[in-house]
Amino acid sequence: MKTIVSALVQSVGGIFNVALVVFIVWMMFAILAVNLFGGKLNYCSIDPYRHHTMEECQKNRGDWLIQKYNYDSVPQAMLSLFTIATMENWPNYMYQAMNIMGEGLGPQPFASPENGYFFVVFILIGSFLFLNLFVGVIFKEFEDAQQEEKATLMLKENQIKWVDMMKMIVEANPDLETTNRPKQRWR
Asked: How far is 50 from 136, CA to CA, in rounded Å?
């Protein structure tokens, strides 16, 4: 337990560096998302796929709304990207972007299917790659803490191997009932 706690404490600097890199990359994706999708995620509260303009929607007594997770500003885009990075319901957000017709227009099914590539690339880079960097930093610090703990024993390399072998022998639990059965039936 002491090794785990010391590894976590020692990895704070590395985690901060990775978090800074993640923030910068997500900021780049957010700026790109604002340029690609800003002002285009509107829909009508009644039959969104039939009423494509605000005037048409209001004429039919509907409300012209914007999606909850949108890309109209960089902070809103960062929040939307964080939601996507959690992998919770991200295909729905991708389909909303794939239904974009234009600025100020309502959705049309699969009007812009190329917008899906943005989300796939963000999932690969923003989620998988950088989350693995977090895990890698913590894992490296844990290994360093283990090596440091072994070094504090003031043992040489071959003595450390001997101690590890003795620990493994003590923790072993052989099945002696099945391995030492006599071959003669009467025994």
From this structure: 49
